[in-house]
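ok, trying the design again with the full structure, not the truncated one.
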C-alpha cells in the first residue's frame, strides 16, 4: 500500500503521484506498507535532492521486501533543479527544524509498524546519511541499524548502539578522506560495529538513480546486496532490497 501523507492520496499509484511540488508544507512523507501487512520499520532519509521519484522507489523496494518504509520530505516539497540550488537550500535550512522532523518521523513510522515498540533501521543518502547517524546516536533505543551512503558525522558516538554500514565513493569532493577516516576512528575507538565499503570509479550520489548523472548501476547494485545482507542480519524482514 502506498500513501503520501500530508496531502497525498493513498489510492494513487507511484507514477500518478508525480514529484513533490514547491509549496508542499513541511511534514509531508511517503509511506509504503508491505502488501501482506505492516512489517519492521525502515526510515529512508534522502539527500539534498529532495523526495524524488527515485527515493520513492527505494521506499517501495523496502516494502516489497517486507518492511514498513517511510521517507519524510526534508526539503519542504522542493526538488532542486541543480547542485547550486540544492546547496543553497541546505544552507538556508534550519537544522533544528530538520532534526525535529526526523525525530517526529521515527514516531510516525513506528506507529505504522508491526511492532510499534520496536526500533527501526535508518537508511540515509548524503545529508540524509548524516541525519541517520545523528538519529541513531541521539535516540539509540529507536534505531536498530544504520546504512549510510556517502555521508559522515563528527559527533560523539558514545551513545550509539546500532551497527553501521557505510557506502562511500572513490572520488568525492563532498566527503573528504580526512572526514571519513576521522568518523571511522571515532566509531572504532568507541567500540562500535562499523563496516565501510569504498566503490572504485564512483562519485557522490552513485547509489541514487536519476541524480546529477552520477548514478553507477553496478556500484549501486553491489551496495544494495551488501545492504540486504546487513539488514537481514541486524533488522530482518525477509529479503532486503537494493538501496
Amino acid at each position: 500500500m502506498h500513501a503520501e501523507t500530508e496531502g497525498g492520496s493513498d489510492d494513487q499509484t507511484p507514477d500518478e503521484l508525480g514529484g513533490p511540488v514547491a509549496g508542499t508544507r513541511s511534514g509531508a512523507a511517503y509511506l509504503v506498507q508491505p502488501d501482506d501487512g505492516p512489517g519492521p520499520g525502515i526510515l529512508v532519509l534522502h539527500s539534498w535532492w529532495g523526495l524524488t521519484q527515485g527515493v520513492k522507489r527505494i521506499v517501495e523496494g523496502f516494502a516489497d521486501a517486507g518492511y514498513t518504509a517511510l521517507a519524510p520530505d526534508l526539503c519542504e516539497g522542493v526538488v532542486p533543479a541543480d547542485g547550486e540550488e540544492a546547496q543553497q537550500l541546505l544552507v538556508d535550512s534550519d537544522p533544528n527544524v530538520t532534526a525535529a522532523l526526523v525525530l517526529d518521523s521515527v514516531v510516525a513510522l513506528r506507529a505504522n509498524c508491526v511492532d510499534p515498540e520496536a526500533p527501526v533501521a535508518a537508511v540515509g543518502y548524503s545529508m540524509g546519511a548524516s541525519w541517520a547517524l545523528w538519529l541513531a546516536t541521539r535516540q539509540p533505543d529507536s534505531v536498530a541499524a544504520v546504512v549510510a551512503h556517502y555521508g559522515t558525522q563528527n559527533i560523539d558516538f558514545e551513545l550509539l548502539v546500532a551497527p553501521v554500514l557505510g557506502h562511500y565513493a572513490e572520488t568525492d569532493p563532498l566527503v573528504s578522506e580526512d572526514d571519513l577516516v576521522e568518523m571511522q576512528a571515532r566509531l572504532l575507538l568507541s567500540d562500535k560495529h562499523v563496516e565501510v565499503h569504498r566503490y572504485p570509479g564512483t562519485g557522490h550520489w552513485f547509489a541514487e538513480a536519476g541524480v546529477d548523472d552520477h548514478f553507477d548501476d553496478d556500484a549501486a547494485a553491489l551496495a544494495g546486496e551488501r545492504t540486504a545482507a546487513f539488514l537481514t542480519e541486524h533488522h530482518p524482514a525477509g529479503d532486503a532490497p537494493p538501496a
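Keeping the full-length input from now on. Residues 6-26, 239-243 have pLDDT under 50 and may be disordered.
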